[in-house]
Structure formats: structure tokens, C-alpha cells
Iron chaperone (Paenisporosarcina macmurdoensis), 123 residues
Amino acid sequence: MEVFAEFLAKIDNPQHRDRTEEVLIWITKRFPNLMPKIAWNQPMFTDHGTYIIGFSVAKHHLAVAPELAGITHFSDEIVQAGYDHTKQLVLIKWDSPVDYSLLEKMIDFNMLDKADCSTFWRK
């Protein structure tokens, strides 16, 4: 988690910081083979050099970025979980619970779908 310490320290709201840290810790424990890193000033996880999932913090939500393919694949489940989404982001409001089951599915999907990917982003 040391890689994310500076990012987390910059989150002014203690509840937002704690929630973000909770999610990042959960991923590092659940997916120990993923590489945590900061890129574009945001925490993310990669696998064999390819992007798997990333996060950003906004005033009203924690944004989860599983790439367009992840949003498209899980669109119905994202809505069923009570989250809004854009083409690239799942928006988890700060007062909403994190659906870790859905997060796990998105990460698993990206790891499998990008197993042979040799680029950072999907083409």
C-alpha cells in the first residue's frame, strides 16, 4: 500500500480517504499478483504490463474505471448494484456500499480478457 500513500494523503475528506484505502487494500489482498501503481495521478492495478482497473476520487463518488469493455460487459449488473456509469467509469457514491462481488467480477473479466494483451490499453 506504500505506493498509494501519497495519493491517499491528498484526499481531504477522511471518510473518502478511508473508503478509497479500504477498496485498494481489498484488491491487493484479493489479487496479490496485480501490480499496484500510480499513473496519471491515479491509483491503478496492472497485470503483465496491461491495465486492469483504476480509480479516481471526486466530490460525490469514487470512480472505478474497468475500461469500456468492462462497463459494456457489466452494464446491467452495475445498474442493479445501484451505481451510475458513463462509458468509462462506474460511479460509487460515497454513501453507497461497495459491491465487492461486482468489483471482483470486473477485475477477473479484465484479467481473463486481457491475458494475451501486449499493450497497456485495449486496442
About this structure: The first strand starts at residue 35 and ends at 39. The chain has a mean pLDDT of 97.
